[in-house]
Amino acid sequence: MSSDTSPAAARIAGRFRGFLPVVVDIETGGLNAATDAVLQIAAVILRMDDDGRLGPVATHTTHVEAFEGANLDPKSLEFNGIDPDHPLRMAVPEEEALRQIFQPVREEIRATGCKRAVLVGHNAWFDLGFLNAAVNRCGLKRNPFHPFSSFDTATLGGLAYGQTVLARAVKAAGLEWDPREAHSAIYDAEKTAELFCTIVNTWDELNGFPDYSARR
User: Fold this and answer.
1) 83, 98, 177, 191: which has the fewest C-beta neighbours closer than 10 Å?
2) Among residues 57, 61, 28, which one has the least CA distance to residue 42?
3) Residue 214 CB: number of other CB atoms within 10 A?
4) Per residue in 101-113, is it b (16+ CB within 10 Å) or e — as a string?
5) Rounded distance, CA 33 to CA 12, Å?
6) What are the DSSP calls for 38-68, one per residue?
7) Which phi and psi (to 5°) does residue 174 adopt?
8) Do 13 and 212 contact (CB within 8 A), yes or no?
9) Contacts of 54 (CB under 8 A, 6+ apart)
10) Count of CA atoms in the C-beta half-sphere (13 A) of 167
11) How many angstroms separate the CA atoms of 101 and 91, rounded?
């Protein structure tokens, strides 16, 4: 761990065995990561305060140009409400989009003394699959995210509240949910972040906020 990492910043590394949880939501042009377009990415940075409570502190997002030859399923576009050709999307090429998202993640990894980021998502396999596919298409060598480990709030929501649908799990956790805002990458990522933090904080509170770093 870097010597200039503050004790408060280092708490998250101790809690998650040197890994930094980052909430990611990706809106796409379909369900197949190999063939369908990535259209929007949002990533929420989480930090721990001096009391050991986890919370969201920053959201980074970008619209993405569909890669050449990408599939765009009309049903998926209707579901997420994205018009790939809308002039105000200000979408950027896939490689640039990844660099925009990865840079603040790398900075947070360094600031907290973590080794790598771990994707947090609702049905995390979906977002991680699309992220990995985009990284491979762009030939990026320094992906800050672990290639296969993740935290899935669908699973955690089922365990904690008996709800696996994001909207129902969020409401079961006592958080607000606006169906009019759903299915945008920013809103879904931020709500997933709130849900994840609520589950982690509730668990830690029930266990007296143990010193997880002693168990690494």
Assistant:
1) 83
2) 61
3) 7
4) bbebbeebbebbb
5) 30
6) EEEEEEEEEEE-TTS-EEEEEEEEEEBPPPT
7) 85, 20
8) no
9) 12, 15, 46, 47, 48, 196, 197, 200, 201
10) 7
11) 13
Three-state DSSP at 77 gives helix
Backbone phi, psi, residue 168, to 5°: -70, -40
31-68 per-position pLDDT tens digit: 999 999 999 999 999 999 989 999 999 999 999 999 99
- Specify the 3-state DSSP secondary structure of 85: coil
Q: In what order do the strands lie in the sheet with 116-121?
A: 54-63, 38-48, 19-28, 116-121, 145-152
State the catalytic residue, choosing from 60, 63, 86, 183. Answer: 183
**Do 92 and 60 contact (CB within 8 A), yes or no?**
no
Helix (H, G, I), strand (E, B) or coil at 8: helix
Structure tokens at 64: 């993405």
Residue 112's nearest CA partner among 31, 203, 2 is 2
Helices (H) and strands (E) in the chain, counts: 7, 5
pTM: 0.94
Both tokens assigned to 29: 């042009």
**Per-residue pLDDT tens digits for 191-214:** 999 999 999 999 999 999 888 876
Sign of CA pseudo-dihedral 179, 183, 187, 193? positive
Q: Distance between CA 206 and CA 200 in Å, rounded?
A: 10
CA dist., res. 34 & res. 55, Å (int): 33
Compute the distance between CA of residue 157 and CA of residue 169 in angstroms, rounded to an integer: 6
Contact (CB, 8 A) for 49 and 179: no
Output the six-digit token pair for 189: 């990522």
